[in-house]
Amino acid sequence: MKVVYDAETDILRIVLNDAPIEESNEDTSGIILDYDAAGNVVGLEVLSASTRVKDPRSLEHVVTG
Q1: In DSSP terms, which residues pair with 65 in a beta bridge?
Q2: Which of 2, 31, 53, 54 has a 20 to 30 A CA-CA distance from 61?
Q3: Cα–Cα distance measured from residue 19 to residue 41, given in angstroms and rounded to the nearest whole number
Q4: Are the C-beta atoms of 45 and 32 separated by less than 8 Å?
Q5: Where are the domains of the chain?
Q6: End-to-end alpha-carbon separation of the chain, Å?
Q7: Distance of alpha carbon 49 from alpha carbon 65, whole angstroms
Q8: How far is CA 51 from the centre of its chain?
Q9: Per-residue pLDDT of the chain (65 residues; tens, 9 = 90+)
Q10: What's this model's pTM, rounded to 2 decimal places?
């Protein structure tokens, strides 16, 4: 998994795997889900991230279980 924040475009992108994106849908305004050919979510984008996320430049990594 990879998390990238682009301050110039104010987009936060979370890549779940490297599968090619077959389709993208903006199910909720400003949240874009990317799907592979099998319909699995492979990533998501948060537009205007600085207004939706407390601090898009910080990342906390937590593993449970």
Answers
A1: none
A2: 31
A3: 10
A4: yes
A5: 2-52
A6: 18
A7: 29
A8: 15
A9: 999 999 999 999 999 999 999 999 998 899 999 999 999 999 999 999 999 999 999 988 889 98
A10: 0.86
